[in-house]
Write a structure and sequence with these properties.
- Helix content is about 65%, strand content about 0%.
- It is mainly alpha-helical.
- It has one domain.
- It is a multi-pass membrane protein.
- InterPro entries: DUF1232 (IPR010652), UCP031804 (IPR016983).
Length: about 110
């Protein structure tokens, strides 16, 4: 996946509104938030940021392979793309990113369903 400034802008603008709408419905909310924090962390290597921004941009796109409103399968493609991205860069996602994700879930009153 290639990282563009347009992708980063879209993710910055659309990630939180979408996540807040769907967080209780997806089992990967904590991973998505940790990926977001890692992607925007200026200490994260550029290639890692690019991979995560690409996956997060796919998550916020209004149209994708499986429409998000479909029960059970709607977020399967989003989860798959994000899981693949995280697997390829997992060594760069730190405890700091994951701790921030857990704090965000708690502060927003969103229980991660996983």
């Amino acid at each position: 996946m290639t990282h563009t400034a347009q992708d980063e802008t879209r993710v910055s603008r659309e990630f939180w509104p979408k996540l807040k709408r769907v967080a209780r419905s997806i089992p990967f909310a904590e991973d998505a938030i940790a990926a977001y924090y890692c992607a925007l962390d200026r200490e994260t290597p550029t290639h890692v940021r690019a991979t995560l921004i690409g996956a997060l941009a796919y998550f916020v796109l209004p149209f994708d392979m499986a429409p998000d409103f479909l029960p059970l399968v709607g977020f399967a493609d989003d989860a798959s793309v994000l899981a693949a991205a995280i697997a390829s860069v997992r060594l760069h996602m730190t405890d700091r990113h994951r701790d921030a994700a857990r704090r965000t879930l708690a502060e927003e009153g969103i229980a991660d369903p996983s």
